């Protein structure tokens, strides 16, 4: 059950096998060693990291495109709920946050993001399947 004050986790609502979708801003993309892209480790540093729960999206007939509906230039990566829990993170369903009042599938990955080496490693080890959508830069805003 979700709890603002402490150590709860919504494992019944968001089981370990669920994908958690995290947006990647265009300035958070870096080249990987194969000439492709990966998210920078900065994507994973927020102690209350916003994600959308893929199981809840599917239960309501939506897909990953819902997560990008207001952010067309952002990329998208999939994190595994069980993997996040093994990294001592809690996953809480927090629907309709102030910045996204129409997002009933919003959740947060909560916990300290230390040591930074864990998040750098996570960023570098993302498989192609985990990188759903590549960010695009808005060239009209560049000088």
Please, could you describe this protein's structure?
The protein is of the alpha+beta class and 143 residues long. It has one domain (19-132). Helix content is 15%, strand content 25%. The chain is built from three helices and eight strands; from the N terminus they run ββββαβαββαβ. It has helices spanning 54-59, 81-86, 116-124, and strands at 19-24, 29-31, 37-39, 48-53, 75-80, 90-93, 106-110, 131-133. A six-stranded antiparallel sheet has the order 6-7-4-1-5-8. Strands 2-3 form a two-stranded antiparallel ribbon.
Question: What is this structure's SSE topology?
Answer:
Blueprint: E1 19-24, E2 29-31, E3 37-39, E4 48-53, H1 54-59, E5 75-80, H2 81-86, E6 90-93, E7 106-110, H3 116-124, E8 131-133
Antiparallel strand pairs: 1-4, 1-5, 2-3, 4-7, 5-8, 6-7
Task: Give descriptors for this structure.
143 residues; alpha+beta; two-stranded antiparallel ribbon; 3 helices; globular
In N-to-C order, the SSE pattern is EEEEHEHEEHE
| End-to-end distance | 48 Å
Helix vs. strand class: alpha+beta
Strand order of the largest sheet: 6-7-4-1-5-8
Mean pLDDT: 85
Q: What is the overall shape?
A: globular
Report helical residue fraction.
Answer: 10-25%
């Amino acid at each position: 059950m979700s709890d603002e004050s402490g150590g709860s986790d919504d494992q019944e609502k968001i089981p370990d096998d669920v994908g958690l979708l995290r947006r990647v801003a265009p300035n958070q993309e870096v080249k990987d060693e194969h000439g492709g892209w990966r998210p920078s480790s900065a994507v994973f540093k927020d102690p209350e990291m916003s994600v959308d729960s893929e199981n809840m999206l599917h239960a309501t007939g939506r897909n990953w495109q819902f997560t990008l509906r207001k952010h067309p230039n952002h990329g998208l990566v999939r994190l595994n709920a069980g993997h996040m829990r093994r990294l001592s993170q809690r996953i809480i369903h927090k629907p309709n946050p102030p910045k996204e009042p129409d997002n009933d599938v919003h959740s947060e990955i909560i916990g300290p993001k230390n040591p930074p080496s864990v998040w750098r490693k996570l960023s570098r080890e993302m498989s192609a399947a985990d990188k759903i959508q590549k960010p695009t830069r808005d060239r009209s805003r560049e000088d």
